[in-house]
Fold this sequence. Notes:
Number of strands of chain A: 3
Shape of chain A: elongated
Domain Transcription regulator PadR N-terminal (chains A, B): 12-100
Region (Disordered) (chains A, B): 190-230
Number of helices of chain A: 7
Protein name (chains A, B): PadR family transcriptional regulator
Radius of gyration of chain A: 22 Å
CATH superfamily of the domain at 7-63 and 84-115 in chain A: Winged helix-like DNA-binding domain superfamily/Winged helix DNA-binding domain
Low-confidence stretches of chain A: 65-83, 197-230
Helix content of chain A: 40-55%
Coiled coil (chains A, B): 132-173
Strand order of the largest sheet of chain A: 1-3-2
Keywords (chains A, B): Coiled coil
Mean pLDDT of chain A: 77
Largest sheet of chain A: 3 strands, antiparallel
CATH topology of the domain at 7-63 and 84-115 in chain A: Arc Repressor Mutant, subunit A
Strand content of chain A: 5-15%
Oligomer: homodimer
Amino acid sequence: MSRRSGILEFAVLGLLRESPMHGYELRKRLNTSLGVFRAFSYGSLYPCLKTLVERGWLTEEHETAAPSQEGERQDRQASLTGRRAKIVYKLTAAGKEHFEELLSHTGPDAWEDEHFGVRFAFFGQTSRDVRMRVLEGRRSRLEERLAKMRASLARTRERLDDYTLELQRHGMESVEREVRWLTELIETERTGRDLEAGDDAVPPPRRPGDAGGRPRHRGGTPPDPSDDTA
Amino acid sequence: MSRRSGILEFAVLGLLRESPMHGYELRKRLNTSLGVFRAFSYGSLYPCLKTLVERGWLTEEHETAAPSQEGERQDRQASLTGRRAKIVYKLTAAGKEHFEELLSHTGPDAWEDEHFGVRFAFFGQTSRDVRMRVLEGRRSRLEERLAKMRASLARTRERLDDYTLELQRHGMESVEREVRWLTELIETERTGRDLEAGDDAVPPPRRPGDAGGRPRHRGGTPPDPSDDTA
DNA sequence: GTTAGCATGTAAGGAGTTACATGATTTT
DNA sequence: AAAATCATGTAACTCCTTACATGCTAAC
């Protein structure tokens, strides 16, 4: 019952697909990697993790155990962690499968504001045609919205005061801007080129590798004096 | 208890301040005038109206007087449920006072994403210094956010795949754009110049001049074949 | 004479938040 | 030794949505 999280569930599965993590770190990642769009609290994260485990999509590994028997402790400050986690969550095969299915399911939800952001964040794990469907779906959704806004504006212009008008103007410009962004992305996908920030002021010094495939990274997670949502 | 709506309550009071309305129209206005930011359904609107009445901020006026040709037909159940009651909601003195207080209360809520949009929509009913506080509060909120995003990006750049990176880049640009917009608005407020008076032919790009507090248009509201949220 | 739009509501529930409660480990 | 941060959780509540239920009135 309950906990049918849409976005949170999706994001958790997606992050855990990349590597196992415990709740605390998961939450930090949620609020930085995808955090522009959404911020989550423990109050929603932990219950969500719980039900994902219940459904068999995650396993818990209590690795805080072993209070008694402890022969060698060479792994303490050896390589990566340094910190030990209490409960490490890990994606099961079923969970992976489920996430894959969610990824390829391009229902009309997929282009709603918040859904779209999270989906985009996991585009690296999707096939190109799914990406295209989502990008185009999102774009036409925004174009619909634009049309309505224009119509509404034409009808009611006289009755609105300057601030309301300015608000609407700015809102429309934002939407137009996102449409242009999407169009660029779609074009990039279509021509099969790699993703490169085009009109940016400061082009990232990064060589884009393979856009179609594996985000394969796992290094030592650095101490990370990470932020919290203010 | 319950129904402590933040945004919806505020918006309803604000719209009713301009003129009395019944629920159906109210909802349309909510979803067009302020609709870029929020969409509300009847399921939240009507209960909200109810509690606002309970608190003495609104009055209901059951429209019963339907002067039709057949004089006997209308008074079947005249007082309470005439013909399918059309209820016009109207702001009371207390409600007006309460709204005024909400307007001038520039707590740290006022610059959160959705709150800000709705507040801005009613800027015409506020004093200049309140407007300034809200605009500047919003801007520094966004600048904080930008700083965090930059820091987080610098820390994690290598671990992110191209799509996540692009998402973050676009998000940051959006925020930067809003900051520039706010800066312009603040400047306009500060210099106090009201650009064009607005009664000449077609002033192309409109800036919010000084609304001075008066949105005093109320004419015959045209039939309005208005849209619904798709 | 039936669809389409106007108009008002309710019950159930979804998706999250806040505030609380607790304790371990590191840093100062 | 105190403060900060890491780490996990729960209960109560908020605010809104969906789906349902009803009925009027204009238009095609």
